[in-house]
């Protein structure tokens, strides 16, 4: 399902290699795959339709450049259009050009991450912009919601409005603004209760809050895992309030984040921030180009590099990468890799981030290589002699028996490991080959950074 | 980027979404069920989050039996709902509290913000009304004020809440709770956990630890491990369920926020892929807003009858 789009497209276009321009029929066939990729990434159907129509216009008759295949050419056109529609290159900052105290209103469905985001945003504005921030929770619906924001404020070192029981959200909003004026705060972040877009009473309430607060920013907070309903939610909130910006939360998950495209298309409001973790600092600028690659299943290469660089021992990775490149990957390297991988998280999630790794991931799933087995495998390799690790071919029946006994496993386990190592070597070779073709260049190279030339931020993943 | 492109896109959007919101009603008032009609039907399912593959399969089955017939709006909806209800019927199984286990231990897990704590509050109410003695365990020691949130639910439902210090070890807390539950004669222990994204292996490992520790008290526990799933979730729910199942062997699902505009079609895909029971659905923020999962009702909701 998550097979990379470019793999599929190169399948579609294999027989078309060398043609000068993209014909209508070819484009139509390719766009069917693009349509599925977008839908599988949770881009809402009406948004997909319009997007495909736009891309079709651009793609038909486009010149295929010398150096790329027609499939890659289409992916490029699609990717460019996606980046454009997600907001173009670069991030849009939160608007703080208003008279202090500047009200920022946070709205969204239940559980989308409004309160956490309010705390993170307060911290961000306070540390980056050096403005005094006041947090105020208007959530009188969910038990302990006001307390949650207060505690977040304490953790972040951001002042929060004292809680007064029994006040209505509109009253709290007034009190927050009065307090901010009196005590000279620059920014007031108003967190609201989660509400369903079809809940008329609560939508009226948030409109009343908006009228009282006259916010400089009305930020719609949306979970990156949201499905097709993203359009309904975005439209309802936008019609009721006039959304000025979107915050996409849980971008540290492995959802492909098609909701971003739906939201942006329906509201026309820029996606300003992305929530990327549980820490209070984990609120970042939104990068359309990264999310475009993710939606298309091209992999979030930059995200992978970041994740890798957090946990990987770079020198070790570099050494292994060099050995893979030379085709000298042996069991010692494999053991070293097992250690690194178990540090990084499950194999599936790592491979999910790699461009073009869809098939490899399927192979790994097939061979049942999960994290639990990694430990046992490390034990088996630990029971081998150095000579055996370097040249696994010499491991025959009696050596296998000895290794199994030494590692507390069975001969079958040893066999399975050797088979998997074989598969792995084959995969490595394949990844290398793909790398030379260009598709994987940034993937594997990014996983194992080499000296001074890691991934450039703006380079496209194909 | 040219603003013109964007405005055109928006105009197009409002047109096509208008059409979509009319749903099947507009598309199927007395017409022949031909390729175009089936395609529209398939898109309606996709727009309800069934996913492209499952939508295609449902429509393929539909095509075999009904292609080319003259059908009314009502017939199409009823038949399609029937088709989907058939997929859902095997997973519509309530959570049975086995009195042989006293206390019956329920571990509640899920990604952030799906409604775990609220669901526990509702479950507590449900069991209290059924004459059982529930006990709540505030195992979300990470999120700000999660403990207080559960304590308020405890007051509302008159169920005791076991809580530790902030950032306390959730596994140790669960163990302590089970000891107390046994001493105080609780029938059901509902353990809340911090929300965690399934791709964070360290956090998933933490969840496994909670289970290991619970088993030191009672080797047969937890007797149910429930994944709380937000109905607005898209295709990522499949990965969510897969990883949680692999890591903590979830035994059933509770689908929340079905009172919104999301239709929760992902449940159909999950039923096909995993066959895990769906015990209940959440339809509001009040204690009584937890309903049994009914395959036919759910299917009708999906196709919009």
From TrEMBL, chain A:
InterPro entries, A to Z: AAA+_ATPase, P-loop_NTPase, Signal_recog_part_SRP54_M_sf, Signal_recog_particl_SRP54_hlx, Signal_recog_particle_SRP54_M, SRP, SRP54, SRP54_GTPase_dom
Principal subcellular localisation of the protein: membrane
GO cellular component terms, A-Z: plasma membrane; signal recognition particle
Cell compartment(s), UniProt: Cell inner membrane; Cytoplasm
The protein's enzyme class: hydrolase
SUPFAM superfamilies linked: P-loop containing nucleoside triphosphate hydrolases, Signal peptide-binding domain
Domain SRP54-type proteins GTP-binding: 270-283
Catalytic activity: GTP + H2O = GDP + phosphate + H(+)
GO terms (BP aspect): SRP-dependent cotranslational protein targeting to membrane
Membrane disposition: Peripheral membrane protein
Keywords of the record: Cytoplasm, GTP-binding, Hydrolase, Nucleotide-binding, Ribonucleoprotein, RNA-binding, Signal recognition particle
Sequence similarity: Belongs to the GTP-binding SRP family. SRP54 subfamily.
Function: Involved in targeting and insertion of nascent membrane proteins into the cytoplasmic membrane. Binds to the hydrophobic signal sequence of the ribosome-nascent chain (RNC) as it emerges from the ribosomes. The SRP-RNC complex is then targeted to the cytoplasmic membrane where it interacts with the SRP receptor FtsY. Interaction with FtsY leads to the transfer of the RNC complex to the Sec translocase for insertion into the membrane, the hydrolysis of GTP by both Ffh and FtsY, and the dissociation of the SRP-FtsY complex into the individual components.
Complex and partners: Part of the signal recognition particle protein translocation system, which is composed of SRP and FtsY. SRP is a ribonucleoprotein composed of Ffh and a 4.5S RNA molecule.
Name the UniProt record assigns to this protein: Signal recognition particle protein
Species of origin: Acidisphaera rubrifaciens HS-AP3
From TrEMBL, chain B:
Family to which the UniProt record says this protein belongs: Belongs to the GTP-binding SRP family. FtsY subfamily.
Membrane association type: Peripheral membrane protein
Quaternary assembly: Part of the signal recognition particle protein translocation system, which is composed of SRP and FtsY. SRP is a ribonucleoprotein composed of Ffh and a 4.5S RNA molecule.
Top-level taxon in the UniProt lineage: Bacteria
EC assignment: 3.6.5.4
Protein localization: Cell inner membrane; Cell membrane; Cytoplasm
UniProt name for this protein: Signal recognition particle receptor FtsY
Domain SRP54-type proteins GTP-binding: 103-304
Record SUPFAM superfamilies: Domain of the SRP/SRP receptor G-proteins, P-loop containing nucleoside triphosphate hydrolases
Binding site for GTP: 110-117, 192-196, 256-259
Biological process terms in GO annotation: cell division; SRP-dependent cotranslational protein targeting to membrane
Lineage: Bacteria, Pseudomonadati, Pseudomonadota, Alphaproteobacteria, Acetobacterales
Residue ranges occupied by any Signal recognition particle SRP54 helical bundle domain in the UniProt entry: 9-88
Class of this enzyme: hydrolase
Gene Ontology molecular function terms on file: GTP binding; GTPase activity; signal recognition particle binding
